[in-house]
């Protein structure tokens, strides 16, 4: 751990940006079709419970990282192995996000550019940021958040005045209720909401631990609301069939904007949202992997790890899948079941039970 | 982490021992010897003027007045030193201690002190004071006679305002501190002086308002100045570069100004000013990014107007940063984003241009930088020629020859004007340099490159600190109350607190409820008007 | 320390980047395609004609250019098995990179639209990176699409823009056609409860001469591009054309009318009073009654009187009320005629099915499979119209009215 501290508002922004990042851009909860916005809201509500599990763990060990207190909870050997697995999980997640980001960028804006180059450029900035530490990450978040909010406002204004919104596209609602729940528990809960597990590595930096609960709830609800809103916007502009067929619904929505013959073709806004989102998620994941490794192996200067770990993420992102379909297949079928479910839900619950038992004995 | 480093600076190195140990450190009894030492040390320079005075009643007691020609105020020396001493020479002195006589009865200058060591005597002599030596005395008198030719207080050339004080700092440190004192008439305005520069012995003053400023910042300033061991300090720029948090970066973390009102405003917010003798540029620390987009005049005009102007400045900064890069990215990577009609126009212009857009942009930018540099260093008469050459030969000719497209010239010219219009030169030149980096990244990866560059820039900026204060505050870390005076300029009556990021000791700036209100009777309220009440409308 | 190797490290990373700017392309290496026309050959292959903008010849674009001397467009033709192959083949003929991001018009010949349908063509367009979903689709009637894009136009330098502008203006001013872009078309095509509509264009005059500069030399021109009818699609194929009043009626129901004129008869005089709509709103409501779908269309129009060819006293509110009544009847007739026509051809161009889906998803599930063929043609549509005259133009009574009074 470094000596820095972050404020509740910084944590709040970090959590929102982290969760929004790529989920704003890809079709989210599309299994639920027209009601995907509802699935998102339900997932957000459920993830508040998840957040409270993480928070409870944090309250037992308010000065320790997740990778530190595993050791205290389940013994030195097992705890260290688990911490190591978590670090791998973070690294792999970072690599996945980077890969997704790279493919998105190339597939719509830079088709001829090699994936490696696009990812390497991004990783360069990520490494630089991670090297600077959590304080800089948090502050960068604050500034980028303002940009994102302004962009969102501008976009919504343009979409609204260009008369694209057709609310009737949302009707009929609640056509297939079981499907909504199915979507929530197989997809949406894990990405993006379950991903806040990484914040167990950041909670200890908080300067006002009492306000964590409120901050978390606010962040998750705002994320859920904005994702649901984006989905509603996409559906009302494009209609479900078109969203289902497009890789990036938000891009298609932006491309349909035509205001006054001049304000059209605003793809650059999408690139901006894409790069900021991708950058942020990869940075937070990489940072958590770096700080976790540093505490696990007792490395004095964690920033030195930024280069090697960053490079690892970069190369990992290139070798995890041979093509994008394979990558998506892994992301939708294998990864949630074998990695996200245990790491985000089962293990934290298990750790919490142990922590509860251990502390009760003491008390 | 790196930003914590400034706390554990290396201790200043031990000063190297003087090689000339032979020389006596303090003054001797013989006046001849003393004068010889002075002559010898100054190499018999003719501007060191020595005048002997002998007392008629006691020829044993001879005195000498030493001063440097040009540094001293001649009337003072003539009237209050030489004249009165000569007068006293006629009389018979009862007192044995001649210096006591001088200081009590004879010499009528504002400050007089006795010193023994040569170092401080020379220091005083070369600062414009006059030394009075007397035979048989193991000490000397220093009479303050500083003066000589100085530039008058004039309007500053580099920071021009339409409204507000026209006074600008001069090269004289005393005048400068006085200019600020004239604005803040408060005993809590404290000044500390020091002397830096091994060869130049430059005077330096730190000024702050006790009770407002955070004492840690003052301590930090003192400590950083304390470790300065430069040969020469020719301008406050020297000091700036050795006390900055990060001198290798492109962004200034110390601001400077030539205007007393700007200094006063900053002192009142809880900052520290550093005056350096010989330059009108006064340093102000700590500095935050947004300060470079503000001018004192912003506070003198109505707030909605200055808010708009500040927004314009930030916008101009962005143009001067990424203007050409944006053009290069749009025309070589993202042609689909340009409206069709505009694209056809640009395409028809670039049709005959033999270079890629990036080369075209670099040619024009470099040309412009050359023109600017030439115009800046030339005497006024020649610079008119340069502007003609620039406008006609380069502007017109380059387009007609079809080497550069008119669209590119428009972009470069707009960028140039935007960069010239940024109020602070320091921040404008950072943008000037970064512009080339952005152009290259735009040529490599289009908007992706620009956006990554911007993120990198943001990361760099938020990691900076100036004397412990985050450079991007109050944006990051966010201080909501501080936002009132950033890109926005809130009304004066709302500035109830000093900037929180400076940790002022006394955060309350002014009384509450400063907002002016029209008299109650003018507002649309139902009041029971009695007969006889004035009811004008 | 770390810093010492940061710079070399970054430089090393940037080194490979310097070797190439992969996706960059200079403007002068682009051939901006303004329109893309697709025809069908006898042997079943596609014939694509590309209308390229020649920037040097676009007047006003460059001072001292040869503007006005040469046509501002150039066309190239290529053949291939699918639209993308056609584009690839065409690039062997053009010295530059064909650039489709600014293509504003996709012209399909009537023949191709009828026989092949648009599905396979549009998939290629939509999947492609450069093609924008806001590209307009039109159909060239009774002529080759290739000829259509080769016709030069006088006022608009780029013919594709002329076509789009006339589309937009006639849609706005006359309400007799409809601007359909790729996205709208696909959205309607994939929905079971809605079918797409596409405007048709014809060229009147001597097409051969219209392709040369002769076209631009006379004020009259050799041929003109004209909007002509709305094509109805079913299952991606062109079914039939809606023309004239029918098309206006269609647009009334579709809520697409912006400023259409409505002419009504008055006392035996045909089209005596002309009414101009300035604001219009159509609400379609769908319900099921006893398992049978019922659609009610409510049209509300507001507008001014523009031309009055008969002596009527328009200052009299009662007269105005009668005119309003006549207007309502006229609009209602037009709308009903359009609906009947659609029902005859068994194509739900109005999206009634979709409305039903939204209001009553359960019964829609039952109706959906046979909607177009069974339920839609038998649909009971109730059209109600409200028309308001807000102003009577700049004068009160027509001078005919005063003349009449004189003679009385």
From TrEMBL, chain A:
Annotated family: Belongs to the amino acid-polyamine-organocation (APC) superfamily. Spore germination protein (SGP) (TC 2.A.3.9) family.
Keywords, alphabetical: Germination, Membrane, Transmembrane, Transmembrane helix, Transport
InterPro entries documented for this protein: Spore_GerAB (IPR004761)
Matches recorded under Pfam families: Spore_permease
NCBIfam families per the UniProt record, alphabetical: 2A0309 (TIGR00912)
PANTHER family, per database record: SPORE GERMINATION PROTEIN A2 (PTHR34975)
Location(s) in or outside the cell: Membrane
Protein name: Spore germination protein KB
Top-level taxonomic group: Bacteria
UniProtKB/TrEMBL annotation, chain B:
Entry's transmembrane regions: 312-333, 383-401, 407-425, 437-462
Stored Pfam families: GerA
Cellular compartments annotated: Cell membrane; Membrane
Alphabetic keyword roster: Membrane, Transmembrane, Transmembrane helix
Region (Disordered): 1-22, 496-537
Cited InterPro entries: Spore_Ger, UPF0353/GerABKA_families
Membrane topology: Multi-pass membrane protein
Main location: membrane
Source organism superkingdom: Bacteria
Biased composition, class Basic residues, residue ranges: 1-12, 510-525
Bias-annotated ranges (Basic and acidic residues): 13-22, 528-537
Family: Belongs to the GerABKA family.
Protein name: Spore germination protein KA
Gene source species: Oceanobacillus neutriphilus
UniProtKB/TrEMBL annotation, chain C:
Name of the protein described by the UniProt record: Spore germination protein KC
PROSITE patterns in the cross-refs: PROKAR_LIPOPROTEIN
Keyword Membrane: yes
Keywords: Germination, Lipoprotein, Membrane, Palmitate, Signal
Lineage: Bacteria, Bacillati, Bacillota, Bacilli, Bacillales
Gene3D superfamilies associated with the record: Nutrient germinant receptor protein C, domain 3 (3.30.300.210)
Source organism (scientific name): Oceanobacillus neutriphilus
Topological type in the membrane: Lipid-anchor
NCBIfam families xref list: spore_ger_x_C
InterPro entries (UniProt xref): GerAC_N, Spore_GerAC-like, Spore_GerAC-like_C, Spore_GerAC_C_sf
Spore germination protein N-terminal domain span: 24-199
């Amino acid at each position: 751990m470094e000596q820095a501290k972050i404020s509740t508002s910084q944590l709040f922004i970090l959590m929102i940006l982290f969760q929004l990042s790529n989920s704003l851009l890809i079709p989210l909860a599309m299994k639920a079709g027209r009601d995907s916005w509802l699935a998102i809201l339900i997932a957000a509500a459920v993830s508040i419970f998840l957040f409270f599990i993480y928070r409870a763990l944090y309250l037992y060990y308010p000065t320790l990282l997740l990778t530190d207190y595993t050791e205290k909870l389940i013994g030195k050997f097992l705890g260290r192995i688990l911490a190591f697995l978590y670090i791998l999980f973070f690294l792999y997640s970072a690599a996945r996000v980077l890969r997704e980001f790279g493919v998105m960028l190339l597939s719509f804006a830079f088709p001829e550019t090699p994936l490696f180059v696009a990812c390497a450029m991004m990783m360069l900035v990520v490494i630089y940021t991670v090297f600077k530490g959590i304080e800089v990450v948090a502050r960068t978040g604050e500034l980028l958040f303002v940009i994102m909010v302004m962009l969102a406002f501008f976009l919504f204004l343009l979409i609204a005045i260009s008369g694209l919104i057709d609310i009737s596209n949302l009707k009929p609602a609640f056509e297939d209720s079981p499907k909504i729940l199915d979507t929530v528990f197989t997809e949406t809960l894990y990405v993006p909401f379950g991903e806040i597990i990484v914040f167990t590595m950041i909670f200890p930096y908080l300067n006002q631990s009492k306000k964590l609960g409120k901050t978390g709830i606010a962040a998750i609800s705002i994320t859920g609301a904005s994702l649901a809103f984006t989905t509603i916007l996409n559906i009302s502009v494009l209609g479900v069939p078109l969203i289902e067929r497009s890789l990036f619904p938000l891009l298609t929505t932006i491309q349909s904007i035509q205001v006054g013959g001049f304000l059209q073709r605003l793809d650059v806004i999408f690139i901006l949202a894409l790069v900021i989102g991708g950058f942020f998620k990869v940075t937070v994941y990489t940072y958590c992997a770096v700080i976790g490794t540093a505490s696990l192996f007792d490395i004095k200067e964690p920033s030195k790890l930024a280069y090697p770990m960053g490079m690892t993420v970069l190369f990992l992102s290139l070798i995890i899948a041979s093509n994008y379909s394979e990558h998506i297949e892994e992301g939708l079928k294998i990864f949630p079941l074998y990695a996200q479910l245990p790491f985000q839900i089962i293990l934290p619950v298990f750790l919490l039970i142990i922590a509860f038992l251990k502390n009760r004995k003491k008390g | 982490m790196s930003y914590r480093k400034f706390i554990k600076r290396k201790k200043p190195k031990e000063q190297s021992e003087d090689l000339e140990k032979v020389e006596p450190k303090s003054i001797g009894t013989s006046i001849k010897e003393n004068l010889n030492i002075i002559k010898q040390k100054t190499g018999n320079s003719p501007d060191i003027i020595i005048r002997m005075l002998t007392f008629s009643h006691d020829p044993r007691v001879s005195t000498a007045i030493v001063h440097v020609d040009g540094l001293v105020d001649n009337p003072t020396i003539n009237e209050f030193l030489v004249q009165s001493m000569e007068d006293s020479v006629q009389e018979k002195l009862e007192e044995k201690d001649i210096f006591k006589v001088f200081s009590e009865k004879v010499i009528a200058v504002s400050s007089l002190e006795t010193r023994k060591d040569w170092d401080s005597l020379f220091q005083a002599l070369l600062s414009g004071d006059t030394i009075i030596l007397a035979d048989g005395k193991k000490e000397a008198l220093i009479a303050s006679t500083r003066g000589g030719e100085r530039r008058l207080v004039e309007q500053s050339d580099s920071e021009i305002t339409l409204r507000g004080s026209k006074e600008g700092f001069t090269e004289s440190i005393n005048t400068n501190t006085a200019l600020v004192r004239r604005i803040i008439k408060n005993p809590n305005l404290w000044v500390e002086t020091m002397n830096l520069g091994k060869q130049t012995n430059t005077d330096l003053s730190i000024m702050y308002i006790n009770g407002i400023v955070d004492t840690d910042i003052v301590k930090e300033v003192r400590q950083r100045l304390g470790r300065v061991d430069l040969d020469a300090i020719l301008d406050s720029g020297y000091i700036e570069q050795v006390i900055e948090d990060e001198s290798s970066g492109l962004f200034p973390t110390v601001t400077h100004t030539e205007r007393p009102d700007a200094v006063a405003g900053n002192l009142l917010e809880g900052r520290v000013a550093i005056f350096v003798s010989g330059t009108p540029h006064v340093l102000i620390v700590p500095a935050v990014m947004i300060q470079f987009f503000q001018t004192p005049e912003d506070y003198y005009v109505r707030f909605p107007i200055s808010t708009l102007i500040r927004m314009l400045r930030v916008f101009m900064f962005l143009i001067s940063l990424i203007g050409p890069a944006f053009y290069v990215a749009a025309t070589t990577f993202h042609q689909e984003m340009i409206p069709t009609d505009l694209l056809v126009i640009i395409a028809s212009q670039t049709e005959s241009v033999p270079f890629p857009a990036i080369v075209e942009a670099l040619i024009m930018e470099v040309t412009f930088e050359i023109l600017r540099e030439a115009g800046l260093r030339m005497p006024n008469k020649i610079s008119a020629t340069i502007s003609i050459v620039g406008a006609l030969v380069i502007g017109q000719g380059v387009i007609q020859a079809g080497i550069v497209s008119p669209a590119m010239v428009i972009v470069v010219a707009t960028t140039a004007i935007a960069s010239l219009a940024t109020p602070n030169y320091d921040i404008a030149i950072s943008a000037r340099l970064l512009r080339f980096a952005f152009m290259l990244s735009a040529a490599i990866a289009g908007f992706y490159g620009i956006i990554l560059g911007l993120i990198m820039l943001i990361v760099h900026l938020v990691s900076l600190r100036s004397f412990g204060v985050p450079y991007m505050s109050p944006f990051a870390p966010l201080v909501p109350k501080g936002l009132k005076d950033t890109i926005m300029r809130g009304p004066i009556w709302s500035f109830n607190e000093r900037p929180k990021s400076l940790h002022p000791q006394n955060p309350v700036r002014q009384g509450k409820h400063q907002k002016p209100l029209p008299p109650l009777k003018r507002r649309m309220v139902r009041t029971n008007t009695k007969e006889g009440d004035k009811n004008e409308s | 320390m770390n810093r010492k190797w940061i710079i070399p490290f970054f430089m090393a990373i940037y080194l490979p980047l310097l070797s190439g700017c992969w996706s960059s392309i200079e403007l002068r290496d682009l051939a901006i395609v303004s329109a893309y026309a697709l025809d069908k050959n006898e042997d079943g292959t596609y014939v694509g004609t590309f209308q390229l903008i020649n920037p040097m010849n676009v007047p006003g674009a460059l001072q001292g250019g040869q503007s006005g001397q040469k046509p501002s467009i150039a066309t190239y033709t290529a053949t291939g098995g699918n639209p993308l192959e056609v584009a690839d083949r065409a690039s062997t003929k053009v010295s530059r990179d064909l650039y489709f991001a600014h293509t504003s018009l996709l012209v399909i010949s009537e023949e191709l639209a009828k026989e092949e349908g648009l599905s396979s063509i549009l998939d290629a367009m939509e999947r492609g990176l450069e093609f924008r979903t806001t590209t307009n689709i039109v159909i060239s009637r009774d002529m080759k699409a290739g000829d259509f894009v080769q016709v030069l136009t006088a006022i608009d330098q780029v013919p594709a823009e002329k076509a789009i502008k006339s589309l937009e203006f006639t849609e706005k001013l006359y309400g007799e056609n409809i601007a359909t872009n790729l996205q709208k078309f696909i959205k309607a095509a994939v929905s079971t409860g809605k079918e797409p509509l596409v405007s048709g264009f014809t060229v009147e005059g001597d097409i051969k001469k219209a392709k040369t500069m002769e076209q631009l030399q006379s004020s009259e021109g050799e041929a003109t591009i004209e909007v002509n009818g709305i094509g109805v699609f079913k299952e991606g194929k062109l079914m039939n054309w809606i023309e004239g009043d029918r098309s206006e009626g269609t647009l009334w129901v579709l809520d697409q009318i912006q400023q259409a004129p409505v002419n009504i008869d008055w006392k035996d005089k045909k089209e005596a009073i002309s009414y101009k709509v300035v604001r219009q709103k159509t609400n379609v409501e769908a319900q099921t009654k006893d398992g049978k779908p019922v659609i009610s269309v409510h049209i509300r129009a507001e507008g001014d009187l523009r031309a009055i060819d008969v002596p009527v006293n328009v200052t009299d509110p009662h007269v105005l009320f009668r005119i309003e009544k006549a207007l309502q009847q006229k609009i209602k007739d037009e709308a009903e005629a359009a609906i009947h026509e659609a029902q005859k051809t068994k194509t739900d161009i109005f999206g009634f099915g979709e409305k039903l889906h939204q209001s009553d998803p359960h019964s829609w599930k039952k109706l959906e499979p046979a909607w177009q063929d069974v339920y839609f043609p038998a649909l009971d549509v109730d059209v109600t119209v409200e028309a308001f005259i807000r102003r009577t133009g700049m004068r009160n009574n027509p001078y005919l009215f005063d003349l009449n009074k004189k003679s009385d």
